[in-house]
């Protein structure tokens, strides 16, 4: 198979993100619409229903480095959230504690990361974790 | 990973017999991915500029068109802020009879004849339609600033 280079891969992801993905519970876009290197992205996750996260809107920063998608993006929560893989000092997601990042492969994408994080929010151990006040930020 | 003969042939010719004002060379680690430069055509506001682009031949090539994008900032109604190009042969007018060379020549021609009636950068197209001289001046300034 042809190996899609970083920039063309990110252009595909951008176009997909602009059209809107799935049911709209996760979304993402470029932080700066004329960032020709497409490194910095914003993401949003709407907390899954029937959990402590229900109706909360979480903002994240996503950074795709030069080696993306051979290497995973780095993820940082802007919105304050209590999850075992999120640093409570600055919101950084620990890639070793999130399988989609620790066992990263080229088929994964910004979308799959957001969807996986949302799935984690609804997991048995995370769905009832006490949360900081809604709307607070790191 | 084996490369289709057609791509090998095209690459050989691009390197051995490049079109005037155009260069294209494949990445060593991905022979479907090319670094491209296009010189701004004489008589256009892009004259004396050297524009960097990147080109990728997807798995389906030549049944699907190459993907091409400007890496150098350019003030042109058919090229957006991310360097994406609005050109019919890169979309619905693609034919497998076209080649990398013809695509790059078409992009060079697009620099000489902007088409503000089929815009990708709406603000630039509006500028070109309402004040062509002023818009060309901005294109020239951007060329001097970014494409040298």
TrEMBL record, chain A:
InterPro entries: UBC, UBQ-conjugating_enzyme/RWD. One of its GO terms (biological process) is DNA damage tolerance. SUPFAM superfamilies: UBC-like. Keywords: Ubl conjugation pathway. PROSITE patterns: UBC_2. Residues 5-138 form the UBC core domain. PANTHER family: UBIQUITIN-CONJUGATING ENZYME E2. This is Ubiquitin-conjugating enzyme/RWD-like protein. It comes from Multifurca ochricompacta.
TrEMBL record, chain B:
Pfam families: UQ_con (PF00179). The active site is at residue 86. Coiled coil: none annotated. Its EC number is 2.3.2.23. Keywords: ATP-binding, Nucleotide-binding, Transferase, Ubl conjugation pathway. One of its GO terms (molecular function) is ubiquitin conjugating enzyme activity. It comes from the Eukaryota. The keyword Nucleotide-binding applies. Residues 2-148 form the UBC core domain. PANTHER family: UBIQUITIN-CONJUGATING ENZYME E2. Belongs to the ubiquitin-conjugating enzyme family. This is E2 ubiquitin-conjugating enzyme. It comes from Multifurca ochricompacta.
